[in-house]
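so my prof wants the structure for this chain in the tokens format not the other one, which i didnt know existed until like an hour ago. anyway here's the sequence
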Amino acid sequence: MKFDVLVNNLIKENKNQKLILIRGISGSGKTTYAKRLMREDPSLSHHEADMFFYHNGEYQFNPKELKNAHEWCKAKTEEDLRNGKSVIVSNTFTQKWEIEPYIELGKRYGAQIIIKKATGNYQNVHGVPPEALERMRSRWEDVDNEESL
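here's what i got, hopefully its the right format
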């Protein structure tokens, strides 16, 4: 049996491993909730596409890099799941197709998948304009088995 298969089988037996997916429009409290979970359990890893845009502690959003940001986030999530860690991912995930690859990752590594919907209405920290927030709201799709915060 290949080493990778053996490791994957061991990981799948880890019933305590979790993949917590937090979704919501900008300013809904996703990151705040993720940070609270991490204070409660410091062993959790946390990833979100916005982290890709931090350079030397400063947020520098570049829309041309958005695809790369999401690929980076997914790769970091998979790396942690492969290593047996529990992971929080907080992204907008406004449509099902955006969250489905993460659900598949969770299934592949045998993690318990928890989906939380952030519904708060706070000032978004990245300065997302109101018209962009409205576009997010208009394309929102509910996901099976999600729980509102």
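also thought this was worth mentioning. Residues 3-148 form a domain with the Rossmann fold fold (CATH 3.40.50.300).
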